Amino acid sequence: MQAALDMVEGGPIDFLTGDYLAELTMLILWKSRLKDPRAGYARTFLTQMEQVLGTCMDRGIKVVSNAGGLNPSGLANDIRQLAARLGLNPNVAYISGDDIAPEIPSLLEAG
């Protein structure tokens, strides 16, 4: 959790990136989403953003991550809420569309 803070404060950097889609992580995200449909993203990313978002905005550092995992819209929403609590208004975007889980029954039926 310290790495993001170290990179942002130690800079200079233009982008802060993170990769959260390791196989084990995806399994953990899937299991958490089974319990709560609002889950499915890397919650540790929120903690990291709480530590660095203000500094990133002050220094013009862009943040790019796949921490949204199985619920990118949920993470984007929670990032917006976090930013509002911090008095910040960042541009937050996410990409969706690669979750084929709802299609699995029809794909299995089709063979």
TrEMBL record:
<dbReference type="Pfam" id="PF07287">
    <property type="entry name" value="AtuA"/>
</dbReference>
<protein>
    <submittedName>
        <fullName>Protein containing DUF1446</fullName>
    </submittedName>
</protein>
<feature type="domain" description="Acyclic terpene utilisation N-terminal">
    <location>
        <begin position="2"/>
        <end position="109"/>
    </location>
</feature>
<dbReference type="InterPro" id="IPR010839">
    <property type="entry name" value="AtuA_N"/>
</dbReference>
